[in-house]
Write a structure and sequence with these properties.
The complex is a heterodimer. By secondary structure, chain A is α/β, with parallel strands linked by helices. Chain A contains 29 helices and nine strands. Chain A has a domain of 206 residues: P-loop containing nucleotide triphosphate hydrolases (Rossmann fold, 3-Layer(aba) Sandwich). Chain B has two domains: 90 residues, 2-Layer Sandwich (Ribosomal Protein S8, Chain: A, domain 1); 76 residues, Fe-S cluster assembly (FSCA) (GMP Synthetase, Chain A, domain 3, 2-Layer Sandwich), CATH 3.30.300.130. Chain B starts with 10 loop residues before the first strand and ends with a strand. Chain A: It comes from Propionibacterium cyclohexanicum.
Chain lengths: 652, 181
Amino acid sequence: MTAQPIASGSGGAALAERQPRIALIGSPNGGKTSIFNGLTGLHAKTGNYPGVTVSRTYGMCQIKGANYNIEDLPGCYSLTPISPDEQVVADLLGGNVRGIESPDGLLVVADSTALRRGLLLLAEVLQKQIPTAVVLTMADELRRRGGSIDQQALSRALGIPVVTVVANRGIGIGELRHLIADWRNWSVPPIDPPQDPNELAGWVDSVLDSAGYQVPVPDERTLRIDKVLLHPVYGSIIFFAVMFVFFQALFTWAAPLQDAITNLLAMLGDWVSSVVTNSILSGLIVNGVLGGVGTVLTFIPQIVLMFLLLALLDSVGYMSRAAFLMDKVMSKAGLEGRAFVAVLSSFACAIPGVMATRTIPSSKDRIATMLGVPLGTCSARLPVYLLLVGMLVPSDATLGPVSVQGIVMFLLYLLGGVSAMMAAWVVKKITDRSGNLMPFYMEMPPYRLPRPKSVLLAMWEPTKAYLRKAGTIILAASVIIWALTAIPGRSPQELEAAGVDPTDSVAVTSYTMENSIAGHIGKAIEPVFEPLGFDWRVNIALVGSLVAREVSVSTLGQLAAASDPEDNSQVAQSISQWTYTEGPHQGEKVFTAPTIVALMLFFAFALQCMSTLAVMRRETNTWKWPAIAFGYMFVLAWVAGFIGHTIMSLFS
Amino acid sequence: MSAPHSAVISVHPERTANPDTLRWVVCHIPMPFAGPLQTAPGLGELIGTVVSRARVNADSIDITLAPGHDWRADGAAVRHGLVVALARTDEWVGGADASRLGPDDVLRLCACELIDGPVGAIATVHGGSIELVDVSDGVVTVRMHGACRGCPAAAITMHQRLESQLRRKVPSLREVVSTAA
């Protein structure tokens, strides 16, 4: 993870320093992002906060010829951090983030359908003595559900400016822009809101009352749907059904596009081969880059589709319910809410998952959760699974109306979720004392129709991250691995001495590869993975995957491209033809069902991710825990792979 | 959130024209009288030292700080004292010209506050004014002046605004009537 200091440093950044920085702060799903988009257009920039993987969004807003730097802070319910996002917000307002000064002005974005909670956040924000104004959102929703609020009376009671904005219809954005331009003159409350919880509750009551706030009656429709969706039994069944359909869609809908990309890359490869005459250079481009990075790119349709479906489910209001439901089930097993948040985050990436453990007060629980988190099915495992599932199950295999590929994928995700929860639960049982469960606080937004713009943005961000990773880490790893497999080139004399025909390019490549540095590494660890059916080429991919799991896919793609340059079919088809080059199974196929299952299980459990280890080291301040995590997960992965290989061998 | 033994006291401060004076708006607690407050539990040590003057209104208390004090520094202490005092309004001691408040008195004071304050300010912006004519048996009678008069839209919104804000403060309000000039 590289941190990018954005608003600091030298050169062009110094210019940005002089522009007033206004930050939006508010709860997730509170309409903050719509306001941000309304102010900045769609010209948002994203990055990371230094040292954490919480993403940072900021953009420029021009008002009356002056530029304002608008920052969309991560969603938070409170400045007493419970998640890494809240930690970042708290640190930022306190000026405790290296290289980023605290903002000049704050806009607290408060969902008017849940204003009490918004005021509790505001009360904390006002203690920071930064000029602050309130932006009320969801006023249309409040009205629709029979609630009301007097904006002027609220402003008077709070002592600070208040504007109402309905961002998707552009109402109030003009007023908000005027307000931002006037940030130096925002009124300050005569005294800060109380900090004593009792006095604070009285302050909130009194302010809401003076502003004529009427709580919206719970949406009838939402209540009825929730009765089913949040039901422990029906809700769980529906959740698994939704996830099941989700993975079905992933395979069925994305396949045609994936073929198109594969063909496109093949054509590109042919063209490069015909244009670039230098064999080393064309090998680097065709085998190293196109074979490696290209293979990773062929999974773009699935990645896009997955995030599109997730964004849809989220914006309809389903994801928070799914999370709530799962927490209800897990808390029965004694897993605490904050640990659940960590495991949940790890489905995107283990790093935010590990970071989220920061909010767990007891260090034992923290480490317990940290040891379980990397088992969650992170998005880096997705391309690996997609490749392997595609090899294991023919795409036309169906079980009734459903695709078997989808079922296997679903089971792999289930395995990741269950094992992460189990690991956290087991360690918690071992170390447990108080059993004091911290409730998981999650907002249940009313069901809404998804807004296309926000869905597209939610889909684009992770896709961009995937592309960026493909263009940086995976590209670099591909080039290095290509070099390790193709260099040194062998002289014709040496080839002849080894019995290889120097004019047969396929034979030359495979001889070169087998005797390359990478080949030696792969062979050196062969004894370890021999019981799982992995040959030296798979081992190279495993070593490569330590950089990032996707590198295993790019490596297999490279090796496939190099060993059979005429074959333009998908990598999966190409590598499924591989045979063992030596040993007792020489000539037999490498990627049999037992080997593929073993490889899947190995990837499900192994901690093949340097970044996660580095973050664990930073969070625990010792190499002990990352070492333990790597060790236990390696053993788990190896044993699971071995069991899978053995069982599958019995059947085939 | 709240400690079991003490009920939540709903109060918040609002600015007034005088920076030394804050209006502490109180919700759901009837004031025992209107006029100067001499002493009250929790505020005893503050009045005369930090606080130079405390005046009780129908639904708020105006507190003025003594010279040399400011709200940023002393606000929290005044709030603590006020919360204690509001839990025991029956022990408050009023000044000489303090008067007991009947239901219509509360209504009148609250109507005056609104007309002199936020609702009247909006009328002024629209080039008019509101006059309080009478308060009896829970009915408030007002008269519109200036540009407001004759403009049905302004009259209706002004009327509604006054009525809804007043009802918020005094739930026993029956209605607001505007008479012809």
